[in-house]
Design goal:
This protein is α/β, with parallel strands linked by helices. The protein is built from eleven helices and twelve strands. The chain has helices spanning 48-56, 83-89, 101-104, 111-122, 127-140, 157-169, 187-204, 215-221, 239-244, 249-255, 296-300; strands at 4-17, 20-33, 37-41, 64-73, 76-77, 94-97, 175-179, 207-212, 224-229, 232-238, 306-309, 312-314. Helix 4 (111-122) packs parallel to helix 6 and helix 5 packs across helix 6 (157-169). The longest helix has 18 residues, at 187-204. It starts with a strand and ends in a 7-residue tail after the last strand.
Length: 321
């Protein structure tokens, strides 16, 4: 049995703005074990980034609220920790690589300074020691150490993402959250970044939470996958079982919207309709307005997660016995 690092229990999150309420997460449950790679998949608005921000306790304070549930790290509630305690965890034990490194990196500080900041804060290194370690980290992610004194705008998109990864890995975190780390990068750079993350995950024995809408990335990097829709997890399990035998019609739709390089040529299938609006979520199954297999039960009943096997769970009325 692998050691449990993070456990999310019945988590509900809302965003309040302009008198409107968006229900971003609606009772999700997840476990991340040591050394494990978990993929969170879904369209924009499914709740993937909100899940990551909830773990990091970085929800926007003015509008984001956790209304129910809890998040445990090594068995301790993170929601009960004070800001000072969370500051010893963020960037040290749990780190995050953001989707757009140009906005997550500070434009007025050199990349070396930004990587060294975490080392000085959490590892208590001297300025010189932190700079030396930052140089090593840059070389680890494929950037020459002489670029330590360059600024973010002097790097390409792929290089900035590498800097973000170096900064996230500076303190050898137990958990690395990667939020769309290859967004806006060309396919060659995407492949390099993914290969780098796979290599570093094994070297550092880091648990990885990969947030993406790209199923190919999940197949390449992850052991387990959670399919999200309307702020809920609709299917969960090992990548092999979920991809080979999708039991939720949303998962089926995602997989069949991918072009096939081999075999018989067929028209691409698409999922009809629009992504569920978090402000006006439908009753019953959140996916039922877009599902060709919808029944009257789907319109009124919220499906519960049922166990198909040790490595496969689904929340679909059609799968219930």
């Amino acid at each position: 049995m692998k050691e449990e690092l993070i456990r999310i229990e019945n988590l509900w999150v809302e965003y309040h703005s302009g008198g409107a309420v968006a229900k971003a997460l609606n009772g999700i449950n997840l476990t991340i074990n040591k050394g494990e790679a978990l993929g969170l998949v879904g369209e924009s608005g499914a709740g993937k980034t909100t899940t990551a921000l909830s773990i990091m306790q970085l929800l926007p304070r003015e509008v984001g609220r956790i209304t129910q549930g809890d998040i445990f790290y090594h068995g301790e509630s993170m929601l009960k920790k004070k800001d000072k305690e969370m500051n010893t965890i963020r960037g040290n034990k749990i780190s995050m690589v953001f989707a757009n490194p140009l906005t997550s990196l500070n434009p007025v500080f050199t990349v070396g300074h930004q990587i060294a900041m975490g080392l000085r804060k959490h590892q208590k290194l001297s300025k010189k020691e932190a700079a030396q370690e930052a140089a090593k980290l840059l070389e680890t992610v494929g950037i020459a150490k002489y670029r330590l004194d360059d600024y973010p705008h002097q790097f390409s998109g792929g290089m900035r993402q590498r800097v973000g990864i170096a900064a996230a890995l500076a303190c050898s975190p137990e958990v690395l959250i990667a939020d769309e780390p290859t967004t806006a990068l060309d396919v060659t750079i995407q492949a390099q970044i993914l290969e780098l993350m796979k290599k570093l995950q094994h070297e550092y024995d880091t648990s990885l939470i990969m947030i993406t809408h790209n199923l190919g990335i999940i197949a390449e990097l992850c052991e387990k996958v959670a399919i999200m829709y309307g702020g809920e997890i609709v299917e969960y399990g090992s990548v092999q079982e979920v991809f080979e035998n999708p039991l939720h019609w949303y998962t089926y739709g995602l997989l069949h919207a991918i072009p096939q390089l081999e075999g018989e040529r067929k028209p691409l299938e698409s999922i009809p309709g629009l992504v569920a609006n978090a402000q006006t979520l439908p009753e019953g199954c959140k996916f039922h307005p877009r599902c060709a297999h919808c029944t009257e039960k789907c319109k009124t009943t919220i499906p519960t997660m049922i166990r198909i096997s040790d490595n496969h769970y689904v929340a679909c009325c059609g799968a219930e016995v």
